[in-house]
Amino acid sequence: MNLFTKTVLKFLSIMSLIAQVLCTFAGLMLLFGAGALLLVPNGVKKQLLQYNSNTNLSVWFLVLSCLIALAIIACLFIIMYALHKMIGNIYEQHFFVSRNLTYLKLILISITSFTVLDFISQLLFAQVHAYNVIDIFPNSWPSLIGKILLLSIVYTLYVVFKYGISLQDDSNNVI
């Protein structure tokens, strides 16, 4: 493995660790926010709900949206965790091992869950006409096509790694 490849893998490993820390921080803040919505006095709740006058929001709707956002952040954390572990394996030149296949499967499931949860959050916020909130993850055709493309790329990598592992096992049994 040349120096450029090692440098890029180290950089990606560090970036995935930073992303894990940021996802953890965001998840803790969402838990704190959801808990605060349930624990604050009723007068404060009314003022909070009046702040966004063009929607008909309830506290339970806000808590539910926080929990969905927390699940989305958990999906992103799992993706970054699996990516970090897989990069570590590749850096150590363990390419076609079953752990990488497991990490790819975890990434595939997490991306699928992220897409479904994002769609659910889009539906929830569309119900109350909170369009300024749902622009965080746009649900346009190019965005949907991009998510499908990402899923197909990860699935293709999964199939390639699965085949590579079977070839590696056959090669190890012959020798």
From TrEMBL:
InterPro entries: DUF2975. Signal peptide: none annotated. It comes from the Bacteria. Keywords: Membrane, Transmembrane, Transmembrane helix. Pfam families: DUF2975 (PF11188). The chain crosses the membrane at residues 12-39, 59-83, 103-124, 144-161. This is DUF2975 domain-containing protein. It comes from Viridibacillus soli.
